[in-house]
């Protein structure tokens, strides 16, 4: 009798196991949004957790510190500046306090979250981007260039913005004939890959506005697809077969004629959302409505995509947030962490490689992308490319203070969110529209704002300053309530008019 030897593939990630955190470490009473858009509904970085939630009369999302646990009170302040439901949120890769949100109100807003989280409802964004004619559902930050943000909407447009000036620098209007499902940057930000309702995979140079590669019918099914660029230039897609089986496919951008690998999984209806870890070359697949998270390793050896294991639970997931590698616990050999969204709960799930040693495991934690950008926005626009700058995780990662906060367009508004009293009189009128914000920027000289913000020798006594801060916080909270009620009144008036006209 002969036995085959060497049939087990050698990999340090073969024994990765997933474990949900205990109930006392979960976040409860979170009213997760019921929006039908296929998005993860959650964004996580080493400082904060952001979750899109149900909101009457507009769109809102919750932002809490990552160490938060227990029940979320209904009076907890939210980011509530959109006039319609929020569809996508993404943290900046170069500033852990900066988050972008896309909404059905056709706008994209960028928010500066103060350290420690929100103390009052936030309604004033530091930047508002208006360039889409229909709802905006996709956001993608440039991986290595500072303040470059890509947006895609239901008007089939892709827009690339420079947040340093608030300008639209590139617009791709003719690349897609139908609804765009997903957009992903490559490692150095020189190209993007997209999948569209016409079932085609496209590789596009956003600066030249040219389609470099096209593959028709990546997946035969009619359900939505997703695509993500891998660090070696390959593209991984998820979709459905003609028989409605969920599929995972790997493509080589040098030759898109045939996939390098295809794996079929099951016949569930949920769209598979891929989360890619470039450090370990692992892909995690979370299906909306599923009770499982599958994870795979992508290698250069056939069959290229290797199934590792799956995490299964009793409760289906409404969405999931994927923590960047800078936030994982290296002392516990945690290589990834998900924040699974239940109907009214956020549950952390850790992916761990079992090791006996307590020392730092360098093979599990290669240098990862840090906060420091490799390029400025103008350098990338001028044609330069560079991969993200890497940092070591040895001994744990501690974020350096932000050096780029003053590069966002509406600086006076940013200062008013953080410092309170110093810039309050200046920022009070700049609350409703982008045009007013721009006028304020021109009227108030930046040196005066910076001096007020940085000068520690204030002329007012500390007691008077604290009183002014409290008054300003109460005014902001009152203004948020008035804004929400006015939107609700407008909605009720429209419904009453329809009833009177006999439309209902």
Question: Can you put this structure into words, describing what you see?
Answer:
- With 504 residues, the chain is of the alpha+beta class.
- It is 15% helix and 34% strand.
- The protein contains 6 helices and 32 strands.
- The strands form 8 sheets. Strands 1, 2, 6, 28, 29 and 30 form a 6-stranded mixed beta sheet that branches. A 4-stranded antiparallel beta sheet has the order 3-4-5-7, with no helix packed on it.
- Strand 3 and strand 4 form a beta hairpin.
- Helix 2 packs parallel to helix 5.
- The chain is globular and about 65 Å long.
- It starts with 16 loop residues before the first strand and ends with a helix.
- The N terminus is likely disordered.
Helix-strand category: alpha+beta
Specify the overall morphology.
globular
Strand content: 25-35%
Count, helices: 6
Rounded to an integer, what's the Rg over CA atoms? 24 Å
Helix coverage percent: 10-25%
Q: What is the overall pLDDT average?
A: 84
Number of strands: 32
Low-pLDDT segments, ≥5 res: 1-6, 410-460
The largest sheet is:
6 strands, mixed
What is the CA–CA distance across the termini? 79 Å
């Amino acid at each position: 009798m002969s036995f085959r030897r060497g049939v087990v593939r050698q990999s340090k990630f073969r024994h990765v196991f997933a474990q949900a955190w205990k109930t006392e470490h979960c976040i409860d009473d979170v009213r997760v949004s019921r929006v039908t858009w296929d998005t993860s509904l959650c964004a996580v970085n080493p400082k904060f957790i952001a979750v899109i939630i149900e909101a009457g009369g507009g769109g809102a999302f919750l932002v809490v510190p990552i160490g938060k646990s227990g029940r979320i009170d209904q009076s907890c302040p939210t980011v509530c500046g959109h006039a319609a439901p929020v569809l996508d949120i993404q943290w900046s890769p170069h500033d852990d306090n900066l988050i972008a949100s896309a909404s059905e109100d056709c706008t994209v807003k960028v928010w500066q979250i103060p350290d420690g989280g929100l103390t009052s409802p936030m309604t004033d964004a530091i930047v508002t981007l208006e360039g889409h004619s229909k709802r905006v559902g996709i956001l993608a930050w440039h991986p290595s260039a500072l303040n470059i943000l890509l947006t895609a909407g239901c008007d089939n447009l892709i827009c690339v913005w420079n947040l340093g000036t608030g300008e639209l620098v590139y617009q791709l209007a003719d690349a897609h004939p139908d609804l765009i499902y997903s957009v992903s940057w490559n490692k150095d930000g020189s190209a993007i890959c997209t999948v569209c309702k016409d079932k085609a995979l496209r590789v596009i140079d956003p600066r030249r506005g040219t389609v470099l590669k096209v593959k028709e019918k990546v997946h035969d099914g009619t359900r939505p697809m997703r695509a993500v660029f891998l660090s070696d230039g390959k593209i991984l897609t998820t979709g459905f077969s003609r028989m409605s089986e969920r599929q995972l496919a790997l493509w080589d951008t040098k030759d898109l004629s045939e996939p390098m690998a295809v794996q079929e999984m099951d016949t569930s209806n949920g769209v598979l959302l891929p989360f890619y870890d470039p450090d370990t070359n692992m892909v995690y697949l979370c299906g909306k409505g599923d009770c499982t998270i599958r994870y795979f390793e992508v290698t250069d050896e056939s069959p290229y995509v290797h199934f590792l294991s799956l995490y299964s639970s009793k409760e289906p997931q409404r969405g999931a947030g994927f923590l960047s590698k800078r936030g994982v616990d290296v002392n516990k050999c945690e290589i990834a962490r998900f924040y699974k969204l239940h109907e009214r709960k956020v549950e952390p799930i850790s992916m761990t490689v079992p090791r006996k040693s307590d020392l730092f495991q360098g093979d599990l934690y290669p240098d990862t992308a840090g906060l420091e950008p490799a390029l400025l926005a103008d350098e990338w626009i001028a044609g330069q490319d560079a991969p993200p700058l890497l940092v070591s995780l040895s001994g744990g990662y501690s974020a350096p203070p932000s050096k780029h906060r003053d590069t966002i367009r509406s600086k006076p508004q940013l200062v008013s969110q953080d410092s309170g009293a110093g810039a309050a009189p200046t920022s009070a009128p700049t609350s409703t529209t982008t045009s007013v914000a721009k006028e304020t920027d021109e009227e108030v000289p930046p040196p005066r704002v910076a001096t007020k913000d940085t000068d520690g020798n204030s002329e007012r006594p500390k007691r008077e300053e604290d009183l002014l801060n409290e008054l300003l916080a109460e005014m902001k909270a009152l203004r948020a309530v008035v804004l929400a009620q006015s939107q609700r009144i407008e909605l009720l008036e429209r419904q009453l008019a329809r009833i009177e006209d006999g439309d209902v």
